[in-house]
Each structure stands twice: as structure tokens, then as C-alpha cells.
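Closing statement on the zinc ion sub-project.
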Amino acid sequence: MTGRNEGLLAAVEAGGTKVLCAVARPDGRVLDQTRIETTTPAATLAGASAFFLNASQRHSPLAALAIGSFGPLSLDPDAPDFGTITTTPKPGWPGTDLVRHFQRTLNVPVTLDTDVNAAAVGEMLFGSAQGLDCFCYVTVGTGIGVGIVIGGAPHGGANHPEAGHMRIPRAPGDADFRGICPYHGDCLEGLAAGPAMQARWGVGTADLPHDHPGWAIEADYLAALCANLTYVLQPQRIILGGGVMQAGQLHGLVRDALYEKFSGYGLNARTHALDDYIVAPGAGAAVGLTGALAMAYRAVTGRWPEATEWAATK
Ligand code: ADP
Ligand code: ZN
């Protein structure tokens, strides 16, 4: 890379509890990173900018910054609120203008996408979706988010997908729980994110026994998500990650429930082999930050980095 391309790649992974920031050489070697607690937008973003200004002084100027953020976000470049966090229930954060904040303080090109799309990019380049150009990355944690890659790039139409809020039929044995989504009650996230499981059973998923009937209900909802994603998008693979998926048996339960939901209809070579269709993430815990670094790389060069030329994977 030459000229401006010699500058550093900068990345932000903005979450509800913490914001991770990193700067890397153009070959992906991380030079510096930091973790900032998510407090008020002003304090949190000022901390991030200070980190990047300091890093650019110590190393070299920044070439581009990419952000993977919690949402919802406005990603339509024609919308007046483009680049902001919109209707988040997180106090103080609605209307936070991520793109302009970093453009103003760092004077670099800024790319913004959802946290799950950034993670999906990391999985595509370095994890469980290598070689695929159409797949879904799902995180089941405090919320449920779905990153969608189509044609080798994160999908965004008029705005980013919100598949975590899709409506799904009630699982057998779960007619009474009202659901906890502040907007929809019993959408997928309201029924199946970690806090929904905790509200329903009085204990967090990390402590729910493996033989608890709640797992079959959870698997039914996640299988409904996977069936719907399959029929709408025909992805080549669906990656299920996030804290709740760390429960050891859950991927298998989802595969079994998904097999039932398909009922033999609309299968393809990939959905015939569910062990290779519903999989765990493979790019490590920092995948969102790695994906954002790759997005910054793409902003500079016009293409994704090759895993073989990316320092962190060597
Ligand atoms: P976030 O969504 O805030 O980024 P996580 O993806 O870590 O965070 O998800 C947090 C959720 O994951 C919590 O509801 C927690 O109960 C659940 N969780 C964390 N570890 C485990 C585990 N080993 N097994 C099952 N659930 C877990
Ligand atoms: Zn909802």
C-alpha cells in the first residue's frame, strides 16, 4: 500500500458495557488497543478519540476508522440522522452521532456498521465462514443480533437488518411468558435472549441445568430463527454465537429442532448437512474488532484483506 495507505487502520467495537478500540498496521498487526467503559456518550467517545489521537502521534497518522456498534443505527447515507444511534433504550444514547464525532475529532474517513455485521466480516475472513459469500452471524446474548453477509459484504438496504426482532410462533410449553422486549414484548429477542431466559426461569442461562426444559424452548426459538433465515436468504451457513450459545448442548438442540421445522421442505446440499450448517464462531472473542479493522482496510484499499496477508492470523 502506498501514500495514504501507509497510515494506520483504526477500529471501534462499541457495546453496551464496553467500547474496544484498536489501531493496526495496514497488514493487520495490532499496535495498540484499549477498553473504555460505556458511560455517557460524551465521556465514552472522548476517551476513544483521545486513544486514537495518542496512538496516531506515537505511530503514524490514521488512514481510516471503522466502527461496529450496538444499535439501532441509521445507516442510510441519505437520511438526516445518518451515522447516529437511534432508538436505543440505553439512557442518554439515542441520537448519539458516532460518524460525525469521529470525523470531527480525528479527521479521517469513517465507516459505520452494526456490531454483528462487523463480527460477520471477521468470521468471513478469519473464522467459521471463510470462503463463503452468503451467510448469517447470530449473537444470542443480552440481545439477539443478526449480521447478514450477501455477495461477500455486510447487507444493508434502507437500513441494517433487525432479524433479532422477528416474530415467531410460540414454542410448545411457552404459552404464558409475556416476553421482555421493550418494543414488542414477545418478539424473538423478547423470548429468547439471555435476559428473557433469566426472567422466565429465575436463573441465568449460565446456571440453568443442562436437563432443564427451558433449553428445548430456547432451541425451538433459535431453530425458528434459523428456518426463517434459511427460507428468506438461503445462506450457505448460519453461525450461532454469543454468551447464551456457550451452553454446551445448545447447537445440537437447535440442529435437532431445525430438522423438525424444515420437515424435509426446501432443503439444499448445505441444509442437508446440519452439522456444517449450524456452527459455532471460529474467529475468537475479538472478532468484532477484527472485523472492524478489516472494514477500515477495505475503506482504504477497496477490498478485504486476505487471511494469508493479515498479520494477526499468521
Ligand atoms: P452481550 O450480549 O452483552 O455482548 P454476551 O454475548 O456475553 O454479552 O451474553 C450475555 C448472556 O450470556 C447473559 O445472559 C449470560 O447469562 C449468558 N451466558 C454467559 N455465559 C454463559 C454460559 N457459559 N452458558 C450459558 N449462558 C451464558
Ligand atoms: Zn423486539
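The pocket of zinc ion (ligand 2) is lined by residues 165, 181, 183-184, 187, 189-190 (CB under 6 Å). With this model delivered, the sub-project is considered complete and its resources will be redirected to Aim 3.
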